[in-house]
Amino acid sequence: MHLMGGVMNLTWNKCEGDKWCPFLTVNLDHPHFHLLEGVYIIWHGGQTPRTVYVGQGTIAERLRAHRLEQEILQYSPMGLFVTWAQVDRASRDGVERFLAESLRPMVGTRSPLAGPIQVNLPW
I need a surface site. Which of 7, 13, 74, 90 has the fewest CB within 10 A? Predict the structure, then answer.
């Protein structure tokens, strides 16, 4: 994560083979996730892919909780995917706000009160 031309450049994670990670089956017990904190995006890959949810926190813990939420799971027939990026605690609210304003997730209307911090999008 570093600043380029006023934009915080995040490293968005993919799964093996440089493919987007399936939300429901990505291995959250993998050592990669140990104490990993940052922001994440869940989206569906339907005919017109849409952002389902944007969030932040301890990545594995938050994604585990979302796997139980019907509001998110209702989109699973279209294929749910997830990506995440490590972001320091001080910047997280602003990054989440920017992502929520840019991607307009279908679930979750709460957005942090912090001013938006512009980041590169994963796609």
Answer: 90
